[in-house]
Each structure stands twice: as C-alpha cells, then as structure tokens.
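Listing 4. Sequential folding, example run.
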Amino acid sequence: MTKQEIADILEIKEYRLQTYINDGYLDDTIWHTFDDKRKKRRNFKYKMFKNGDYIGVGTFEELAELTHKTVQSIRYYHTEKYKLRKHTDRFRLVKVE
C-alpha cells in the first residue's frame, strides 16, 4: 500500500500524511513492505567458508551477525570482483538449495 493510497483512504493530501509521519503521529511501517520477489531473492541461504574452513550457514544478514562483519562485506564476497582479487583470508559463499 502506497502513501497515496493511504492518504486517499483518510481523505487527506499526501503531503499532510508525510507531515503527520514526520511529527511522529503515524508509524510508517505500514507501507514499507517488500514484494515477494525481492524478499525471496534476498533470503537465500549460504554456507560460508574462510580459507576452506566452515564458518556457518545463513542469509547475508545472519552471516554478518555471526562473523561481526557488515552485510555489504558479506555480499561483496559473493561478487566476481572479489573472486578475481588475491586475499590473505579467502572467503567463499556456497548457495544452499
């Protein structure tokens, strides 16, 4: 549901709805929903290895918590750019079906 649709239901303008949100009267989590395709795409599980040693299994977010690294770092380990460079500690992500 978009902000415009909510504003139409409340019979107010969208800018007025945004003012209520900014003032703290409304919680904006209602329209921050992911569509199913995006959610499924980002919730793949991966096995993570460091220099051939098994670290754990989980989504990017779960692996970030487990290794105390950022989610962006974990995603970078899965890119071709990372695979082409030489590293002292080599991380490898294997997709779990």
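-- end of first protein; second protein begins --
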Amino acid sequence: MKFKSKFNQSKLYFHYDVQWDKLKSVKWMNARASSNKAYVPTTVENVANVCTHALCVAPASLGARELLTRSVNAPQAIAAVVYGLALCLLFAVSTTFHSVCCCKSDT
C-alpha cells in the first residue's frame, strides 16, 4: 500500500492505494475436500480463524460472569459456571489449535 498525505484546509488526510493485483493473487480458500479426506485450510484462513476465535474469548468470559451474577440459586450458578467455562475453553482451545496449524502450514 502506498500512503499519500494531503493538506486540505488545515486538515491532514491520508489516502492509500490498494494493490488489487496482489489481493487477487492471494489464495483465500482451498477447494472443497473430496470424500473421506480432511479439508486443509490455507494460511489466510488459519490467520482469520485465530483472530476471530481469539476475539471471542473476552466476550465469552464477560458473558459467563454476567450469567453468574444473575444466577439466584445454586443450580443456576453451577450451570453458569459450567457453560461459561465451556465457552471460554472452546474459544481458547480453538485459538490455540489454529495458531499451531498456522505455524505448521505450508500453503
């Protein structure tokens, strides 16, 4: 990307040129896997998975805390803790998995 700055009425504006040819040459996804074979995501997909799943850990923990504070009896509190931990661990393990896959990816 090329950044250009322009002064217009004492305000600084930044403009950048997107290199569309480079974006078109990026392999965003692989073709669908044939039967009895695992799908192998591209590096771009793994990076996107890491980012999106890592971003969900904080809202999951905040939601778990909110569920726990709204619980009024022991069964609700236990359910809130179990559900909240499961959701947080789901996103944390998924982030870790995709991070490891991203580091080992050859595509």
